[in-house]
Amino acid sequence: xxxxxxxxxxxxxxxxxxxxxxxxxxxxxxxxxxxxxxxxxxxxxxxxxxxxxxxxxxxxxxxxxxxxxxxxxxxxxxxxxxxxxxxxxxxxxxxxxxxxxxxxxxxxxxxxxxxxxxxxxxxxxxxxxxxxxxxxxxxxxxxxxxxxxxxxxxxxxxxxxxxxxxxxxxxxxxxxxxxxxxxxxxxxxxxxxxxxxxxxxxxxxxxxxxxxxxxxxxxxxxxxxxxxxxxxxxxxxxxxxxxxxxxxxxxxxx
Length: 254
What we know:
By secondary structure, the chain is an alpha/beta fold.
């Protein structure tokens, strides 16, 4: 770990000092996130807040509530979400196109309900056998679920798994897993690790671990665009990488 990894506050302050006059002044920032990117955003937002003196509020919001907030110019300065979702907001004029920056990559993992034996998923063949042996499987209709389904299709077992597969909405897969809705769950690792009532088994092997990307961007109606851009600069810097890895995601490559 480099000096900035050890002394993040000093590094952030140095970065802020290189920004245009006023960018480092106290501001109140609101960053909107989707479920998958929230843990990483909270980690870097806390570091940025401590070092810059700005107040940062992280709000997880999606779907109609997000659209209503942006359409009404409600409080919002930044948004972190999947790239396609952000591009759709750029087209509506709600997000500044030239500010869109790749943020993190979240790999896929597998968890079991607490008390269920952990299967071997160390190889592609072992993972395939584990899914075939599972009594029930769950994943979402989001990016992680789409990638999980694509992997299952490539393994040639989609038809066999369909009768025992459940698709989740309105909440993390691990919430349904903990309730006993199914025995095996697949989602982004950063959401699954440490979830109560579940046990994380490990990352999906090989080509099956197709990560979900997220980007960060400036909201057009931001009342503190300089401070917001400073936060984007920190969130996507090398200095933020150790903080992001603490939440089980990888910084996006630029």
